[in-house]
Write a structure and sequence with these properties.
This is Type IV pilus assembly protein PilP. The chain is of the alpha+beta class. It is 16% helix and 27% strand. A hairpin with a 3-residue loop joins strand 6 and strand 7.
């Protein structure tokens, strides 16, 4: 029973609102005089937007690959056989350090051995032997990073540990 009463009240209220909306409809507006309608001209400058142009001055090229991080510095001398291999491919066989001019023997991947001194060019990134110690040699490489700045890194080629000792 209460749902029938609520439904009847809802119908009555909705009929009142719809009847009132029909009686208060706005009157037809009078036609606008022909002299009031003028064509509005849009300025030609507002239509043209400035074309975007990328200015790369002072910035890194966003389309350049970051995988090309290590580019060697240009070489001034002719390439030695040791400059054909990466430092990771070379193995230190032995070192002689008790003299004024220490030396070390390095085994290349092609099976040949080379004697290196301080200052010998070695590695693909234009590296040079900086120091020769009892169990390792230290090589300093110069290369360009992805921001085109010259960087130096020191890497060591270690003497392998003897087995069975």
């Amino acid at each position: 029973m209460p749902t029938r009463v609520i439904l009847a009240l809802f119908l009555a209220v909705s009929l009142v609102f719809t009847a009132q909306a029909q009686t208060t409809a706005p009157a037809n507006p009078s036609p606008v005089a022909a002299e009031d309608t003028k064509a509005v001209e849009v300025p030609a400058a507002a239509d043209k937007k400035p074309k975007y142009v990328y200015d790369p001055s002072g910035r890194r090229d966003p389309f350049q690959s970051l995988l090309e991080i290590r580019k060697p510095v240009a070489r001034t001398e002719p390439e030695t056989p040791l400059q054909q291999f990466d430092l990771g491919q070379l193995r230190l066989i032995g070192a002689i350090v008790g003299m004024d001019n220490p030396r070390a023997m390095v085994l290349a991947p092609d099976g040949k051995t080379y004697i290196v001194r301080v200052g010998t060019r070695i590695g693909k990134n234009n590296g040079a032997v900086v120091s020769i110690e009892q169990n390792r040699i230290v090589v300093e490489e110069r290369f360009y990073d992805f921001t085109d700045e010259v960087r130096t890194s020191r890497q060591a080629i270690e003497l392998p540990k003897r087995e069975g000792v």
